[in-house]
Amino acid sequence: MPSSKEPQPAPEPPAPSDEAPSASASASSAADLTAPDGYAKALSTMWGLAPVPCTQHEQQLIDLDDGTSRTEDENNGAVQEPGGAELLYWPDTCTGLGDYQLRALPDTRVGLLRVDAPKSFDSCRATAGTGFGALALSERTDREERGFVEGAALCSVTDKGTVSMAVIEHIAGGAVDDVSVSGPLYIWAATP
User: What is the rounded distance in angstroms from the CA atom of residue 113 to the CA atom of residue 151?
Assistant: First the structure.
């Protein structure tokens, strides 16, 4: 017997929210993008690490003022021209796969904001002063012990005074593959 009910219209999608999405499914809370006095409203872009085969003899430099990256000739982790970059991703030994290292460049303020810490301007600025030494990203156990996991963030106060929060949203690769990392980058620029 046919139904006498009229078809119901499809429900409308939820309205966009002003709240930032959580860094990842494993993150405990959403990012608080409130800008304090002296800083512009947070801008959002993307950042990432993408290794090339070490036989190409390149290392990647990442500038957390805007998320851009560039390459230069690899020189055993030495940097020829930092050009404002905060992070270096380089092949340590080039003896096989999975040998890329990540570290903060000298004279930069970079730290790792743990996954369970609040994702905010204040917590990121405080974390930036804790330091970030070399980490072999292919070593999953080391990554997890240091807290470099999905939902954590690399925080920096850059040479321009910008506070940057590079959220680790995706990690791909591992023991036999060089690791790629990507996620949102939140940037609070200092205002004049």
Answer: 9
Tokens 């590079």 sit at which residue? 166
Query: Quick check: 59 and 81 in contact, CB under 8 A?
Result: no
pLDDT digits (tens, 9 = 90+) for 137-185: 888 899 999 999 999 999 999 999 999 999 999 999 866 677 899 999 9
Q: What is the pLDDT of residues 116-132, one digit of tens each?
A: 999 999 999 999 999 99
Rounded CA gap, 11 and 141, in Å?
Answer: 45
Q: How far is CA 171 from the centre of its chain?
A: 10
Query: What digits encode the pLDDT tens for the residues 24-39?
Result: 333 335 889 999 999 9
Q: Do 105 and 82 contact (CB within 8 A), yes or no? A: yes
Query: What sign for the dihedral angle of Cα 56, 45, 182, 191?
Result: positive
DSSP secondary structure letters along 96-158:
SSS-EEEEEPTT-EEEEE-TTS--BHHHHHHHHTT----EETT-HHHHHHHT-STT-EEEEE-
